[in-house]
Amino acid sequence: MKTFQGYRLIRPEDLHWRPSNLMRIPNADFLERTGSENLGARLWRMPPKSANTLHKHIRAEEFYFVLEGTGRLRVGAETLTVPRHGGVLVGPDQLRQVFNDTDTEVLWLIIGGPEELEFLQGSKSTGMDLSLVYPVDPKQLPKELAGVEWPPRDGASTSAPGIQPIDFEAHARGWLAAWNAHDLERIVAHYADDVEFSSPFVAKLSGDAGGVLRGKAALRDYFGRGLAAYPALKFEFIRLYPGVRSCVLEYRSVDGLRAAEVIEFDAAGKVRRVQAHYSPG
Prior knowledge:
Elements (H helix, E strand, L loop, with lengths): L16 E3 L6 E4 L10 E7 L3 E2 L9 E8 L2 E5 L2 E5 L4 E4 L5 E5 L5 E8 L3 H4 L2 H4 L41 H13 L3 H5 L2 E8 L1 H7 L5 E3 L1 H14 L6 E7 L3 E7 L5 E8 L5 E9 L2
Parallel strand pairs: 11-16
Antiparallel strand pairs: 1-2, 2-3, 3-10, 4-9, 5-8, 5-10, 6-7, 6-9, 11-12, 13-14, 14-15, 15-16
């Protein structure tokens, strides 16, 4: 593992809140943009009556620190109550689960190291045995949450304070209407300032062979080129696939192509990342 050199200031506005994959707990990774291979640090905002995964680690030690509220953590057969500004150090061999059986949200900062890169990079490509991390059902709830349904069903909100809920249908309608009106500013208004956009059309219209644009200014220029190149452009809605804070929008694009965009939203409800895909009609 490489050692991080120098320093990196991380501001609150740099954080990208997202729901976790298995348990849909809002979280933000402090170090995802630093490239650190030795340390992980993540905020977890636990909604009332919720739980994170029951898991262990291969070699990472973790320090669990409560920033707001009263924390609850089961480690092995014990259930711990952690006061605000209290912390717990847990070794890799211990099964642990953060949960919240109170009526108020609890904010945790969890720091761990060394990073288990084989896990972060995904078991799909490495063939990693997930039972090393999840030796039992990771979604089982502690006895303190008996009768509680978590994770919530699709469509239920898990947003933390300051995170705007997403109306995917309204976004799709407004976005398509802006394009069909050829209104560049209305189109661009849907995107965050730090948006990342990838599309096979990027190389064709902007000359960027990498196919990726970053920032609203670059996106405005690219969209402007698209409107000029296709003066009769009209998009037709096909289907919308809602997620938690992302969706897939399928529509008929230029030259009869079917398009499917994977769209991720930031805490303010703006589009922060897009991956566009195309297929012959």
